[in-house]
Design brief:
Mean pLDDT: 92
Strand order of the largest sheet: 7-6-5-8-9-10
Low-confidence stretches: none
CATH topology of the largest domain: Rossmann fold
Strand content: 15-25%
Length: 295
């Protein structure tokens, strides 16, 4: 008898991988008798999920064809949701659109993250502080793909983030997540050491409040059922966001010109000449504070 597999191939960033765990669950629900094999850039996201049978890192797949495809009853899921009409036109959330692309039934499956015993123990010891922890992620994305330290399309403006730290520093131990030390805020602990992705995600479990941007941590917070305040500038909360969060949208000016945009409006890298803002009043500070108090 031929062996049965579903093979789910994922490319892209860490946040996209967290979102993809919901799609993986839909694949397993549709084909429960087939072993689910995941090939991706961040295997650690899938290792603890009981509905995933094997995980391989892209580029490290020895004998994969012979083991899982040749003379097997395998189904391949390797389409890119970012280049579908629904995604480009912002008509369907990422996970729902991804499932539609694969003709999978979607029943509001949510992302999942699972920690093993040692990961939980590490997080408890690593993130123990005298005051309750507030996490603020001011900057996100890989360094090698973003030419500027500050990306106006999704990073929190420095003046806003510093005012938030000043407002909450007495009540909370604030831990800032950013790309490099040059973006550090005053009055908070800045994570500069290199962490594994699961170590970073464990910080969320031990936090009481979270102010995030459209990056991996807002996906992880949704996967962990941790309501957060998420700030959006050039990306869409309708596509990438979650109802569990308070999604706060920037005040975009009218008549924005996008001379270099093709299928998408704003690039994550935040090209300087496309920035439509004249001043730093991108967000209403009081709206963010109200959101933090609510969550």
């Amino acid at each position: 008898m031929k062996k049965n597999y579903t093979i789910f191939h994922i490319e892209g960033g860490l946040g996209k991988h967290v979102a993809a765990t919901a799609v993986a669950k839909c694949i397993k629900n549709a084909y429960p008798k087939k072993s689910l094999i995941v090939v991706c850039a961040y295997p650690e996201v899938f290792l603890g999920l009981n509905f995933v049978d094997r995980v391989y890192k892209i580029g490290n797949t020895p004998y994969f064809y012979q083991d899982y495809i040749e003379n097997k009853n395998s189904l391949i899921f390797k389409h890119e949701p970012y280049f579908t009409t629904e995604h480009i036109n912002k008509t369907l959330p990422l996970i729902e659109n991804w499932c539609k692309l694969y003709n999978l039934e979607y029943n509001n499956e949510k992302p999942q993250i699972s920690f093993n015993l040692r990961q939980k123990q590490y997080g408890f010891n690593k993130w123990l502080r005298e005051k309750p922890i507030m996490v603020i992620q001011t900057n996100g994305g890989p360094l090698n793909q973003q030419p500027y330290p500050y990306s106006w399309t999704r990073d929190i403006p420095y003046n806003i983030s510093q005012q938030l730290v000043t407002t909450y520093s007495e009540k909370y131990h604030i831990i800032q997540i950013c790309r490099n030390p040059s973006q550090a805020l005053q009055g908070c602990e800045v994570i500069t050491e290199e962490l594994t992705n699961m170590e970073l995600f464990s910080l969320l479990i031990h936090s009481e409040k979270r102010i995030l941007i459209d990056s991996c941590l807002q996906h992880a917070a949704a996967a962990l059922d941790l309501p957060s305040s998420v700030l959006w500038i050039g990306t869409s909360s309708k596509i990438f966001g979650y109802e569990i969060h308070n999604n706060i949208k920037a005040i975009l000016p009218k008549g924005i010109k996008l001379p270099d945009s093709y299928l998408f409006d704003f690039e994550f890298s935040g090209q300087l000449h496309e920035c439509p803002f004249i001043e730093n009043d991108i967000f209403d500070l009081n709206q963010i504070i109200s959101s933090v108090e609510e969550n």
